[in-house]
């Protein structure tokens, strides 16, 4: 069965698009056929993150509105394919446009839908097209509250599986009570955890061949999330502060 994952957040600036891109590359490295879809209408960023912004000609809105084919709109990048968001709002687009478009994307093992922050139109498009959702948040209380809202909204939209990714987690700050602890974030969002991405290291993206560089804790966290997504029993190890 094709996995279609809506990567969502309540608050902006939590690293959701970077996690989406990195997860797509890691899944492709594991032999999966991966489609990465940017759902952030008007504020798309995945084409720039991947370094292909000058080559994008069409968006998924063009496909949905009959202006081009899916093959014309998809941009190959390393081992993945990118389907960009439109640069401006399209009044003719309906919330089920992406969901309908998924019928023509059956050749992919995994579709990752990078939703915009919040629970507006782009969020609803992404969630309607997915069969599971990953909610990304950091450890600050404002972000956790908005993540809880994003997760609850997905459940109200009949999403069966909603999981939590905690990004930029600093265990030292949590121990000092300057950030929420892992258990507190889980309790407040009421979501099952699938991964913790540490703050201590930086992930460098090499755009010419889609390699994840600097094999550190952050890169390892992405690999563990991909492994759990594939059904592997990977223990959750909270990274130590550096």
Structure description:
- With 242 residues, the chain is α/β, with parallel strands linked by helices.
- The protein has one domain: P-loop containing nucleotide triphosphate hydrolases (Rossmann fold).
- The chain is built from ten helices and ten strands.
- The strands form two sheets. The chain has an eight-stranded mixed β-sheet, sandwiched between helices. A two-stranded antiparallel ribbon has the order 9-10.
- α1 packs across α10.
- The longest helix is centred in the middle third of the chain and has 16 residues.
- The chain is globular.
- The chain starts with a strand and ends in a 13-residue tail after the last helix.
**Which assembly state applies to the chains in this document?**
single chain
CATH-defined fold name = Rossmann fold
CATH architecture label name: 3-Layer(aba) Sandwich
CATH class value: Alpha Beta
Q: Give me the strand/helix succession.
A: EHEHHHEEHEHEHEHHEEEH
Low-confidence residue ranges = 201-215
Question: What amount of the residues lies in strands?
Answer: 15-25%
Q: How many structural domains in the coordinates?
A: 1
- Give the overall pLDDT as a whole number: 88
Question: How many helical elements?
Answer: 10
* Content-based structural category: alpha/beta
Topology:
Blueprint: E1 3-8, H1 16-29, E2 34-38, H2 46-49, H3 60-64, H4 70-73, E3 75-77, E4 80-83, H5 97-101, E5 110-114, H6 121-129, E6 132-137, H7 141-156, E7 162-169, H8 171-175, H9 182-189, E8 192-198, E9 204-206, E10 211-213, H10 217-229
Parallel strand pairs: 1-5, 1-6, 2-4, 2-5, 6-7, 7-8
Antiparallel strand pairs: 3-4, 9-10
């Amino acid at each position: 069965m094709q996995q279609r994952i809506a990567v969502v957040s309540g608050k902006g600036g939590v690293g959701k698009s970077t996690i989406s891109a990195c997860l797509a590359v890691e899944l492709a490295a594991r032999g999966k056929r991966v489609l990465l879809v940017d759902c952030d209408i008007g504020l798309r960023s995945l084409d720039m993150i991947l370094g292909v912004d000058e080559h994008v000609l069409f968006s998924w809105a063009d496909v949905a509105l009959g202006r081009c084919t899916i093959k014309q709109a998809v941009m190959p990048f390393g081992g993945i394919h990118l389907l960009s968001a439109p640069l401006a709002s399209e009044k003719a687009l309906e919330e089920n446009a992406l969901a309908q478009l998924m019928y023509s994307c059956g050749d992919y093992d995994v579709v990752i839908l990078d939703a915009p922050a919040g629970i507006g139109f782009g969020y609803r498009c992404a969630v309607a097209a997915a069969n599971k959702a990953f909610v990304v948040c950091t450890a600050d209380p404002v972000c956790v509250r908005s993540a809880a809202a994003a997760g609850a909204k997905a459940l109200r939209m009949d999403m069966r599986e909603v999981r939590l990714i905690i990004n930029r987690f600093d265990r030292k700050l949590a121990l000092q009570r300057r950030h929420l602890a892992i258990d507190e974030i889980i309790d407040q969002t009421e979501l099952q955890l699938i991964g913790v991405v540490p703050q201590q290291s930086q992930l460098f993206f090499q755009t010419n061949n889609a390699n994840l560089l600097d094999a550190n804790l952050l890169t390892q966290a992405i690999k563990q999330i991909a492994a759990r997504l594939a059904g592997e029993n990977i223990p959750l190890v909270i990274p130590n502060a550096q």
